[in-house]
Amino acid sequence: MVDVQNQMAVPNALSLANLEGKGRGLMASRPLKGGEIVLRDSPILTYSAYPLKRREQESVSSYKTYCVQCCKTLIQGGPTTTTLTCPSCCHPDDGIFCNAKCHSLAISLTHSPWACQALRYLRNCHVLVDQQSDERQVQARYLVAAYNLAMYSPSAFQTLLSLDGNGSQGGEMDSAVFLHSFISLLPFPQGFSTPSVEMTASLLSKDRCNAFGLMEPFSEHGGRSVRAYAIYANGSFFNHDCLPNACRFDYIDNGTNGNTDMIIRMIHDVPQGQEICLSYFQVNLTYPVRQKRLLDDYGFACVCDRCKVEANWSHQDDEGEDKTMDDDEEEMVGSDEENDQIEVEGEDENDDDFPHAYFFVKFVCDRENCGGTLAPLPPMNGNPPDIMECNVCGNLKREEL
């Protein structure tokens, strides 16, 4: 197995710039090679993707259990004698740890007594857990994590507040008003003022615009879901492009320290001064599906070169909603997206109609139910320069020269 997780990012590879019409973005500070790790970033905040209450029709065995601190997969079902739990938590989703180190870190930082008490209180709010959607319950988890961050690391909380997202959209304010009615009743510690509804709306917007999903392992049967969400101080500056030149890798269950780090690798060579972009989801979705998702989830319409070409195509068969892609984060893979994906076989015969067919042939994984993005292995430690790794299923493939 190739050890990519522990390889370091290239120093001074990226610079932050203000881009007309796009806000802040990350640029190549020098010529970059395919496979180079240009950013390795640790999250400033993580939180569980599970609702506060599991629905009655869903069995406990259908959920995996993850370490609250490092998000590693533990077991199917509940805790065992090899794990540590928080004695104050009423549910293992809120307080189960894979080892003594994670337990110690969590109790002193992310899983403080206040956070434990807050989650227990919210779980007992029947209006929230019985009558509201899973999304609202996960938002409540996020707000607890964010306000807990403000208590143990004020500087990190200020970094969170500096990210894009101003909470001005109507839907976010509606959610903020509802959730604030519960948050305002939490027993905040002495000296910490109860946050305003405007602050809650702003935080929800930061989450909407900047959170990345930490995914369950790939399965050939499809249905890859999110175990937790993470927000990164530097990684949040990557803008979207429907034909990205970089992609994100994570190795959550494979490593030890830093297993929730975001690792950004170049897909191909780029010159100095070019913007480095990710795709916020699978690249093989059709134009109407991509546009709808970007507008609904991120509040903008994409005008990248690919979208300009595909805007002139006929999409009469693609006007339905993307029913399998219901998560807000980058490169999340559903199980039944075939009807929403672009068929590229034979398309490269007419580059005028589909000038980006080469990208799909070379950089999109063809494994069944995958559709991930391929990037070369880092050009170091003797790695062969023609081996490509998929950022979804992890398969290695020799590049066809």
Automatic annotation (TrEMBL):
Q: Which Pfam families would you find in this protein's record? A: SET
Task: Give the start-end ranges of region Disordered.
Answer: 315-351
Q: Where is the composition biased (Acidic residues)?
A: 318-351
- Read off the SMART domains from this record: SET
Q: Which InterPro entries match?
A: ASHR2-like, SET_dom, SET_dom_sf
Put simply, this protein is called: SET domain-containing protein
SET domain location: 12-281
